[in-house]
Design a protein that fits this description.
Blueprint lengths: L6 E4 L4 E4 L5 H6 L3 H9 L5 H5 L3 H13 L9 H31 L1 H8 L3 H17 L1 H11 L1 H21 L3 H30 L2 H11 L1
Antiparallel strand pairs: 1-2
Helix pairs in contact: 2-4, 5-10, 6-7, 7-10, 8-9, 8-10, 9-10, 10-11
Length: about 220
């Protein structure tokens, strides 16, 4: 497929040969992102790239990331870097809170069991059900993120997880703990985790993506 389409395009700078999608950045540098997108859409032989996986929007995104300018040629490098730092901080905070919450529950099982008048087995059951709910709904959470948008799914997941944490903190018995910890927090985590992966991929260029994933994880 990589060699099936090869069309030299002259945008006033120099001819660029589109052989596969990795050449999108080079193509964008030959002219403004908007002109590049319009040129692609007007070429029937390149409609595969325009109509597959949102290539036009990806092209404009790669132009901004690779040149530090928006589609009008305005320097946006500092804004992009600061925005990426904020995104990374928010995503890392969400991941850290979920990890901390799980660790605290595992470490304090004896104390929680005593406070709720139940057994260690009951608390272990709540922890296991939380994992099962999160794992079983993970794919569904990813589908919801695709339908609603990753940022919106992340926000909804945080709200549900926060409500679950509140219910868990106020739980007078094991049954309420199961509702707050196992059910609500499990649903919230199933929305948050796929959204984190997608948001990192969407907000960081390939050369910085591995470091971003490492910091979030």
């Amino acid at each position: 497929m990589a060699s099936a389409i090869c069309s030299p395009l002259d945008l006033g700078a120099r001819p660029v040969c589109i052989r596969h999608r990795q050449n999108a950045t080079e193509f964008a540098r030959a002219g403004s992102a908007r002109n590049s997108i319009e040129s692609l859409r007007q070429r029937p032989e390149l409609l595969y790239f325009v109509n597959t996986a949102g290539f036009a929007s990806e092209l404009e995104s790669r132009f901004t990331m690779s040149t530090g300018c928006d589609s009008d040629g305005v320097d946006s490098g500092s804004d992009t870097r600061s925005g990426s730092a904020v995104v990374l901080a928010v995503l890392a905070s969400g991941q850290f809170l979920m990890t901390l919450d799980s660790s605290v529950m595992n470490v304090s099982m004896a104390t929680v069991a005593q406070d709720l008048g139940t057994t260690i087995t009951g608390i272990q059951t709540a922890i296991t059900l939380y994992t099962l709910v999160m794992a079983s709904l993970m794919i569904t959470g990813g589908k919801i993120g695709t339908a609603l948008g990753r940022r919106r799914a992340f926000g909804i997941g945080l709200v549900i997880y926060g409500v679950g944490s509140l219910v868990t903190g106020l739980a007078p018995n094991l049954l309420i703990l199961l509702v707050g910890w196992s059910l609500l927090e499990g649903i919230g985590a199933a929305l948050i985790m796929p959204a984190i992966v997608s948001l990192v991929a969407a907000n960081f260029p390939p050369e910085r993506r591995a470091a971003a994933y490492g910091l979030v994880a």
